[in-house]
Automatic annotation (TrEMBL):
It comes from Tetraparma gracilis. InterPro entries: CRAL-TRIO_dom (IPR001251), CRAL-TRIO_dom_sf (IPR036865). This is CRAL-TRIO domain-containing protein. Residues 82-244 form the CRAL-TRIO domain. CDD domains: SEC14 (cd00170). Signal peptide: none annotated. It holds the Pfam family CRAL_TRIO. PROSITE patterns: CRAL_TRIO.
Length: 247
């Protein structure tokens, strides 16, 4: 990425963004990690041209909503993480290692049937949601630039898994994540409950996400349009083993 002709001692793009954050807020970024800051540049750049003001706005919106939902804290990547252990027992959202399409877009795999509200609180589920994305952004630097492919498997989902407060927080979170939403969003194994709820939820989803949404029902073979067989979970007709799918 470039922003005009760079001199030998010119600040790097990440340093420029950090300086902009400091001048606009009076303090350093909540997490000044160059790797994490770079995500805001990657998801807002066009080809090799930077858009520093847009990256600054994206960064501001990210930490503003994050603070509202999670409180003031740094990234949720402390080891051993209680969030990682919670997700291990009730894995409603996972990013299987190495599962991506030919464009380098990573698979995000959601299984709302694991949202057991005797195990999760609204706050802990929201924190786990952010944890999965933050870990993905730090582990896979090209995610911000190339985007993701999301697959939502609604097998076994019922009213007992529904939580309007969590759904609202998750939908709001989507709009501020430093990720290009370039890949498709596929919903599979949906039932009548999904159609009833979607009528309400779609009013709050970003238009660009709705435009890429495809409700497949049981037509799992159409996942091959966006993912290779080795990146499609076995439960959906592919060869990718995802822990918890047999439950």
């Amino acid at each position: 990425m470039t922003n005009g002709t760079a001199g030998p001692e010119e600040a790097t793009p990440v340093e420029q963004l950090s300086s902009l954050i400091l001048s606009s807020t009076g303090s350093l970024p909540p997490d000044p990690s160059p790797l994490f800051l770079c995500n805001f540049l990657l998801c807002t750049s066009v080809l090799t041209k930077l858009d520093l003001p847009l990256a600054l706005r994206k960064h501001s919106r990210y930490w503003s909503l994050r603070g509202e939902l999670l409180g003031p804290s740094a990234l949720l990547l402390h080891a051993p993480s209680p969030l990682a252990m919670l997700l291990e027992g009730s894995p409603f959202l996972v990013a299987p290692a190495g599962a991506r399409n030919s464009l380098g877009q990573r698979l995000i795999y959601a299984r709302p049937r694991f949202l057991d509200w005797t195990v999760y609180s609204t706050a802990s589920a929201v924190a786990c949601y952010w944890f999965v994305f933050e870990r993905l952004l730090l582990e896979d630097p090209i995610v911000a630039e190339r985007g993701i492919v999301a697959v939502d498997n609604l097998t076994g989902v019922g009213l007992q898994n529904m939580n309007p407060a969590f759904t609202c927080a998750a939908v709001r979170s989507i709009s501020v994540m430093p990720i290009r939403w370039e890949g498709a969003y596929r919903v599979v194994n949906n039932n009548d409950l999904f159609h009833s709820l979607f009528f309400y939820v779609n009013k709050f989803l970003p238009r660009r996400l709705l435009a890429k949404m495809d409700v497949l029902g049981s037509k799992h073979e159409r996942l091959l349009e966006v993912l290779p067989e080795e990146a499609i979970p076995e439960a959906l007709g592919g060869t990718l083993k995802v822990e918890g799918d047999a439950i």
